[in-house]
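Handout, section 3.2

Students often ask what a structure token actually looks like in practice. Rather than define it abstractly, here is a full record for DUF2867 domain-containing protein. The first block is the sequence as you would receive it.
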Amino acid sequence: MPIDPLPHLDEHTTFINAGPDRVWPHLIDVVERSFSRFGASGYARLVHAADPVTSGPRPLSEGSTLPGFHVATAIPGQELALRGSHRFSTYALTFRLDADGPTRSRLRAETRAVFPGLAGGLYRQILLTSGGHVFGVRRLLAAVRRRSEQGSVR
């Protein structure tokens, strides 16, 4: 898979006691639910996100949108790449899923972003110093792990 040209911001990893094919539907469902929660569309509109609402095919696939994101790549069992932009940033959140043995997976979430101008720099500072981004990504990964290991898709 090609590396996104945006500057690397961070990467978080979790290991899951389930194979990639079992993890994939949980990843899709958790991402959909997490980015479609109450207030997400309002925030996306507030910052003038390019993709302010949920639309397109379901389950998530190329062309689907979530508030603040569009699905750029959806390769079942391997990669889900979300892209987005708003007045303060252009960004990508890419989930990569790899087998780590016969019944175990490694799930990585890589964030890349650029924050142009003074307003973008202030937004970056708030995003990174608040801890909200790291907390949110780690919580999302933990939810995928928990649901994949329990085995039920809601």
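Discussion prompt for tutorial groups: The two ends are 30 Å apart (CA to CA). How would you have guessed this from the sequence alone?
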